[in-house]
């Protein structure tokens, strides 16, 4: 939208022009079904999907590209990982473990499995938004089939200690799954080094298209398919593959791989500039969640003493997310911030600012000016 500064990169990201470029031929002339094995129309789209699988595989350092299964997004990948695991292993191991700040598509999928007769332990996070290893250790038993802990939290940006948690899950014989929708392409996620068994990713959080994602499934892990039909994706996910979307996700992964380190430094600088300026304007400001263990593109902040709705009403020129309602979809406030045990006042005055690849220094300066005039209007400067 014209004249609006986009700081909602956790909700979704704009498509990178280089991603659009690789997608376009598959929306026009290269329209073949990748499963049409008898002619060139099929071969060229099949080849594009192979390239995309290799690009995603390279970013997460999978052992083989065929450990990547394309889905419609991270929601579907999470469903496949959790339901697929419980249907494959749940008879011997009927228990699941997750954390109370997971995305709804993990929590609700686990609750669905619970309604089907499996048992669930939801471990709380501490005040910084991090899960305590001791609490997890107590929760995981020799009946646990899957431990699911997200890599980067979508509202507060906190990064969990995935390698330690995966090792803990394995020590009790459980599989480890991570919802990496917000971490994939932003922080290094090496599935072999971190011993991840299952990892969900999404295209539209990394400047790729919406409607595509993938599940990494470590070789040897058995999953029961959730979409039945043809033999696409090695029989694990039926349905004609979407060459344009897969090619877009592959290119997005490739761009993220080459720019990850420089982008981290650049975005960290923008985050610090914005945070320092906002603290100068309003010293009581509080950062929600650990500032150290955090994806640098995320700032979840509260303005104690200010009515959150009034602040947002005065910040319409910035596309941001309100931690008090929109991001949680609940009128009673974010369940994630509640999980951190924050006082009501901090929850109701919280905002999430998401800095991304296309955020410029100028955008940050303009955003600071908007905050300044909003605080002035509210008589807080
Ligand atoms: C942590 C997390 N998991 C899962 C999802 C769902 O991803 P998708 O939109 O690809 O289904 C999101 C998107 O908001 C997310 O932030």
Automatic annotation (TrEMBL):
EC numbers listed for it are 2.8.1.7
Q: Which residues cross the membrane?
A: none
Q: What class of enzyme is it?
A: transferase
Query: Could you tell me the superkingdom of the organism this chain comes from?
Result: Bacteria
Keyword vocabulary terms for this entry? 2Fe-2S, Aminotransferase, Iron, Iron-sulfur, Metal-binding, Pyridoxal phosphate, Transferase
Q: Which cofactor does it need?
A: pyridoxal 5'-phosphate
What would you give as a GO molecular function for this chain, any one?
A: metal ion binding
The record places domain Aminotransferase class V at 5-365
* InterPro entries hit by this protein: Aminotrans_V_dom, Aminotrans_V_PyrdxlP_BS, Cysteine_dSase, PyrdxlP-dep_Trfase, PyrdxlP-dep_Trfase_major, PyrdxlP-dep_Trfase_small
| Catalysed conversion reaction | (sulfur carrier)-H + L-cysteine = (sulfur carrier)-SH + L-alanine
As for family, the record states:
Belongs to the class-V pyridoxal-phosphate-dependent aminotransferase family. NifS/IscS subfamily.
Function (record text): Catalyzes the removal of elemental sulfur atoms from cysteine to produce alanine. Seems to participate in the biosynthesis of the nitrogenase metalloclusters by providing the inorganic sulfur required for the Fe-S core formation.
The name this protein carries in UniProt is: Cysteine desulfurase
